[in-house]
Design a protein that fits this description.
With 291 residues, this protein is α+β, with helices and mostly antiparallel strands. Helix content is 37%, strand content 20%. The chain is elongated.
């Protein structure tokens, strides 16, 4: 089983320390660049430094997602109690319980990677739920997706968009690059995809409110128009009622005026000839007025 170890420092190093070649520059905003150290140099830094040790467990995985996307490797990380992703491990000095505690600002991060078989890694995943810290400091183990889907965001790019604790994101990218677990160009594309600004989400509530505000004035305008038409009809009826008839009118003509108040005033001035079909003429006048 292959193993890898790396020591890196967060903070200013004393003179003469850190003579190793620099670690690969990732150029990821928000991910601090670390300074490499040998174990001998790390142990000679003195009491002003605190040491943290974390491990990445991984295994080759021949599986295919949806029968067409190669998984390459299974890499274990864990969801912490604070909602941040990290690797199993912690501070060697038990005075500092987490990377968020008010501890030393100068930290030596010891990082190890150990290759297992897929069966061994799966056994660790199963036994992890029975550990004493499960559900307390650790919310659960997660596998890192090392592929990128056709939309260029699904998989590793989306995973890198999560929040990581301390140096965990740098350590993950460092291990993926050094161990050739992801092709270098694919790794660079995944990192670049996380830096693109996201499209703002559509605020459906605000859009609905704006639509209601537009509908409101239109409804008010229709109500005003209906009110104006009713007032005009009432005024015309009042004018007809005030005008005296030229000759005595029949009962049918009176019913015509009452049923059609918006008829023209000239119709009321014409004498009505008593005849048998007066009711029919009145009904026709009402129909014409309604049209």
């Amino acid at each position: 089983m292959a193993a890898m170890g790396a020591m890196a420092a967060l903070g200013a190093l004393p003179a003469g320390a850190g003579a190793l070649p620099p670690l690969p520059t990732l150029g990821v905003p928000g991910v601090p660049e670390l300074k490499p150290l040998t174990r001998y140099e790390a142990m000679r830094l003195g009491p002003g430094w605190s040491h943290s040790c974390h491990a990445m467990l991984y295994a080759p995985n021949p599986g295919m997602l949806f029968g067409r996307i190669p998984l390459r490797y299974a890499v274990l990380m864990q969801m912490r109690f604070d909602g941040l992703l990290g690797f199993p491990g912690g501070f060697v000095d038990r005075r500092y319980w987490s990377l968020e505690d008010e501890g030393p600002h100068r930290v030596v991060a010891h990082f190890y990677a150990r290759q297992l078989t897929l069966e061994e890694l799966h056994t660790i995943e199963i036994s992890a739920v029975h550990s004493r810290d499960h559900g307390l400091e650790v919310m659960g183990m997660v596998r890192v997706p090392l592929y990128t889907q056709k939309d260029r965001m699904g998989g590793l790019p989306n995973f890198l968009g999560n929040s990581f604790v301390g140096t965990a994101k740098f350590q993950l990218l460092f291990a993926l690059k050094i161990l050739n677990m992801v092709p270098e160009e694919k790794l660079a594309e995944a990192v670049a995809a996380t830096q693109k600004p996201k499209k703002p989400a559509i605020d459906h509530a605000a859009a609905a409110k704006a639509a209601n505000e537009l509908v409101g004035p239109a409804r008010a305008g229709n109500e005003f128009q209906d009110s104006a038409e009713n007032q005009a009809a009432a005024q015309a009826a009042a004018e007809l009622a005030e005008q005296p008839a030229a000759v005595p009118e029949s009962q049918a003509a009176l019913e015509q005026l009452a049923a059609a108040p918006v008829a023209e005033a000239v119709a009321a001035e014409q004498p009505v000839q008593p005849r048998a079909d007066a009711a029919a003429d009145a009904a026709q006048a009402v129909a014409e007025a309604m049209e």
